């Protein structure tokens, strides 16, 4: 399973790097219009819409939204109701399951839990 993500401060990049079991693709402000023609999980940090617009650009490119089997949110629990709101908005707008979340760059326990969810997506896509 491929992980597609974007990272503003480096926390998501660090989290993904620690998920070495999976290949990854980082989208950037300069080129969010990449087509991923295979199942993937998308990891999104929580920032203002102007910063996260690249996630919508990416999902609207080609068949990306159809290939996305789940979204994982990253955020800061200090922001209460705004915690992982970008991931929640993407999941709602594109009707994609919100699989899980982690804070900052994630703990070892969060990484293991999220790895299991990504493996479950992999198995479910192999059965389809």
UniProtKB/TrEMBL annotation:
<protein>
    <submittedName>
        <fullName>Putative NrdI-like protein</fullName>
    </submittedName>
</protein>
<dbReference type="Pfam" id="PF07972">
    <property type="entry name" value="Flavodoxin_NdrI"/>
</dbReference>
<dbReference type="InterPro" id="IPR029039">
    <property type="entry name" value="Flavoprotein-like_sf"/>
</dbReference>
<dbReference type="GO" id="GO:0010181">
    <property type="term" value="F:FMN binding"/>
</dbReference>
<dbReference type="InterPro" id="IPR004465">
    <property type="entry name" value="RNR_NrdI"/>
</dbReference>
